[in-house]
Amino acid sequence: HVSHGGNKRLKRAMFASAFASLRSDPVSRAYYQRKRDQGKHHNQAVPALAHRRILTLHATIRNNTLYTPNQPRNYLPPRHTT
Length: 82
Fold this sequence. Notes:
Blueprint: H1 8-24, H2 26-37, H3 42-63
């Protein structure tokens, strides 16, 4: 269930960021796929990914560190088609 409270612009930006990360970030893609494999619908998996990205952002600010993604265990590099 997505809360209707809070800053709507920020929420929209975080959802857009989560959705865009599905194409470019293998860690985000693996997390999204795990949620889908758990039976979550797309409209449940994307907010879960947005929440996870918010937690990661908060941790990097709190710890004064840079974000360094880890390769997921089930990572398969994208196939390049020409």
